User: Fold this.
Amino acid sequence: MQAITQIRLSELKTFVSGKVREVYDLGEHLLLVSTDRISAFDRVLPVGIPDKGKVLTALSSFWFRKLEHISKHHLVTDDAGEFPREVQKYTDIIRDRSMLVKKAKRIDIECIVRGYLSGSAWREYQETGTVGEYRLQPGLDKNSKLTRPIFTPTTKTASGHDEAITIRKMCDMVGAGPGEYIIAKSLSLFEEASRYAEMKGIRLMDTKFEFGYCNGEIILIDEVLTPDSSRFVYQSKDEAKVLNLDKQFIRDYLESTGWDKNSDPPVIPHDVVLECRRRYLLLLEILTGSSPQWLE
Ligand SMILES: Nc1ncnc2c1ncn2[C@@H]1O[C@H](COP(=O)(O)OP(=O)(O)OP(=O)(O)O)[C@@H](O)[C@H]1O
Ligand SMILES: [Mg+2]
Assistant:
């Protein structure tokens, strides 16, 4: 079992090489290839997580289809057999980890929705009693459920250092109409996905959506409701503990090493890599109700 962290499809035109994905420009469409790279605290870590790119692809595809009554999206197909001819020669490398999508003009906002008080929201609340523009009731604990989900946007920059902004600032940047539209869509997507996950014993704590313009319409792009872009918590029957089925597990490990988050990230031990893989796969299996056919 090996993590695939480097993928270069030499004859295709690179659109962008992200922290996790290699994106190729096919004209009207993009090819989004998810590697097994993992990033945390804005840094790509020195080891990959085997099959992670496949899990992200399978889950994103699952959610795009499940939620398409709420929002149009960029997915054309994740079936490598249906990819355009120029991509066919790379099928063995990219199968099960790639999506053919509509190319969009990205709206440079991270549409963050939070149903619970975790991560940076918890840190902010402890200092100021607020999360973004929302003043919350005093005395809440870490991971408390919020009265209703809140929308806390940030900018999306090439440097990766995203900055929290107010809804008013976001609307100044993207226009009031589009701003209101992406807030409403983000909240509806979050509520529907939370309801579904809850039925499977999984709590969706928070997530991030991206939107873009395609043929004059705003559509959902990038990845959706994956363990990289969201926090998921599972209370299993046979494991007494509550399990984070997401990147939080790796963030917690990194924090435990005392890493200063500026120097090179530490090497992740093999057992931590395997446990991360197990959790990503478990999330996929619980949410979709089946084991992926690519799993050896
Ligand atoms: N349909 C689309 N049209 C245009 N750009 C897209 C589309 N879907 C995704 N993207 C962009 O492709 C890139 C995907 O790469 P990746 O997720 O690795 O990058 P990243 O966002 O830099 O990393 P991270 O997610 O860790 O912050 C992102 O820049 C994303 O905004
Ligand atoms: Mg991304």
The mean pLDDT is 95.
